[in-house]
Design goal:
The complex is a heterodimer of chains A (200) and B (250).
Chain A (H helix, E strand, L loop, with lengths): L1 E5 L2 E11 L5 E5 L3 E9 L5 E7 L4 E10 L3 E9 L5 E10 L3 E10 L6 E11 L3 E10 L4 E10 L3 H8 L5 H14 L4 H7 L3 H4 L1
Parallel strand pairs in A: 2-4, 3-5, 4-6, 5-7, 6-8, 7-9, 8-10, 9-11, 10-12
Antiparallel strand pairs in A: 1-2
Helix pairs in contact in A: 1-2
Chain B lengths: L1 E10 L2 E11 L4 E5 L6 H8 L6 E9 L2 E2 L5 H6 L2 E4 L11 H12 L6 H15 L16 H15 L3 E5 L7 H18 L2 E6 L12 E6 L2 E6 L1 H10 L14
Classes of the chains: A alpha/beta (200), B alpha/beta (250).
């Protein structure tokens, strides 16, 4: 386990990298622990993620992948103590079928100095998406924000790439890869190996 | 040769170009000047077939072929490159990836990586651009001046035969303007490309000498001259003795 200084606190850092995960995850962070969960699914299945944070912990969940079949992912974060960070980032491309993501964070009564961010983004191809970001805040002292956007590939970026002589299909592929993998560190992206055949 | 004939274009039922015509011979440099919102940038986008515009009449010919209905990437592959006023930034996509993909689509030959890297480093040196930008995301976190230089790095690699510069001088300080202008002049000399410069000010024309200067008003060119016309505009303005309020030249 590595040590990392976060907000001037030396923390035990743990990284969990999962590819094509279909299992439920449950994790209770220790005090002074930093946990990064990276999940890439080439086709999302239904699964649940449950996390519990007590004091002085730092949690990042990076979740990315394609919708190729109907699924529901439930993400449930519980913050019981003080001075925790909870960051959830989701990027998904709905190629076919329907995907639903319920992302709930509960910050307990009387807790102090917690920070919560939920950042959910989806791109629609021939599928559909439903995001449900839920913040349940039972304390007066918390920084909490959530974003949920669902749209299409940005037209300006597609046009720009095409003005360089890149076909629409290749431009979409470039934007898709950047959208899905921008969350992850380079070593995890290499493990995913997405698009290797195309590059070759 | 690049030729626009009698082009009439609309956006959301508003007429932007009204019988616009222009001819640029190979190797010539032309400048279009005009007031804000008169349709100069629109013309650039229409040449690259931006689907937001509706063409109701006319044609655009490049190298004896109509490019009017071609997809944007096909027009670019014909050798036409647009450097827009505010080049788009793309997170997660590097300049290296864009250029490699564009070159791969342009030619069936394998890319000589050594030559490719050398060309990019040389271009960065000529542009006084940090070579780190080669591996950085397209225009992300770059200043206005750096963005223009990054676009010219793309020119150095993709080697267009017709370059459209939409307000390339905006966002450039005096030193950066000289570097950019020198690069464009050298590229023009080496490649014998044609260039269309869209600008409000004559400052860039002090460095890049156009063969012709045109004034755009009411959707068409209303006056054509040499670089002295740009000087006249700089002194007297567009609404002066050159063009009256109805856009008619005196």
């Amino acid at each position: 386990m590595k040590m990392e200084k976060v907000n001037n606190i030396l923390m035990d850092k743990k990284v969990i990298n999962l590819i094509d995960n279909d299992k439920n995850l449950e994790y209770t962070l220790k005090d002074n622990e930093m946990l990064v969960i990276n999940i890439f699914n080439s086709s999302f299945n239904s699964f649940n993620i449950k996390t519990i944070q007590n004091n002085n912990s730092y949690l990042v969940i990076n979740l990315s992948g394609f919708v190729n079949q109907d699924f529901t992912v439930n993400i449930d974060g519980e913050i019981k103590g003080d001075n925790n960070h909870y960051i959830l980032k989701l990027r998904t491309v709905a190629s076919y079928n329907h995907g639903a993501v319920n992302a709930k964070v509960h910050v307990n009564e009387g807790t102090l100095e917690n920070e919560v961010t939920e950042d959910l983004k989806g791109i629609l191809e021939d599928g559909s998406l439903n995001f449900m970001p839920i913040l349940e805040i039972d304390t007066n002292e918390v920084k909490a924000e959530h974003y949920a956007t669902i749209g299409h590939y940005p037209w300006e970026e597609l046009f720009y790439l095409q003005t360089k002589g890149i076909s629409n299909d290749d431009a979409i592929e470039m934007l898709k890869k950047s959208f899905l993998f921008n969350l992850f560190a380079e070593d995890f992206v290499k493990q995913i190996n997405y698009g290797k055949e195309q590059d070759e | 040769m690049f030729k626009v004939s009698n082009l009439t274009a609309y956006i959301e039922n508003k007429k932007i170009l009204d019988g616009f015509s222009l001819e640029i011979n190979d190797g010539e440099i032309h400048t279009i000047m005009g007031k804000n919102g008169i349709g100069k940038s629109t013309l650039c986008k229409i040449i690259l077939n931006d689907p937001h515009y509706e063409i109701k009449a006319g044609d655009i010919i490049y190298n004896n072929k109509s490019i009017l209905k071609k997809p944007t990437y096909e027009i670019a592959k014909e050798g036409i490159m647009l450097i827009s006023q505010n080049p788009t930034s793309i997170e997660g996509v590097t300049n290296m990836e864009v250029l490699r993909t564009a070159l791969r689509e342009k030619s069936s030959e394998n890319i000589n990586i050594f030559k490719f890297n050398k060309e990019m480093e040389d271009a960065c040196a000529r542009l006084e651009l940090d070579p780190k930008f080669i591996h950085k995301e397209v225009n992300v976190g770059a200043s206005g001046g750096e963005r223009k230089k990054i676009e010219l790095l793309h020119v150095a690699i993709l080697k267009p035969s017709f370059l459209i510069l939409d307000e390339i001088d905006s966002g450039l300080d005096v030193d950066a303007l000289k570097v950019v202008a020198n690069f464009i002049n050298e590229y023009h000399k080496e490649s014998k490309c044609s260039i269309l410069i869209i600008t409000h000010h004559k400052q860039i024309l002090d460095y890049i000498k156009p063969n012709y200067v045109h004034i755009l008003s009411e959707g068409k060119i209303v006056k054509t001259g040499d670089h002295h016309l740009a000087e006249e505009i700089e002194t007297t303005g567009f609404r002066s003795n050159i063009i009256d309020e109805n856009g008619k030249s005196e």
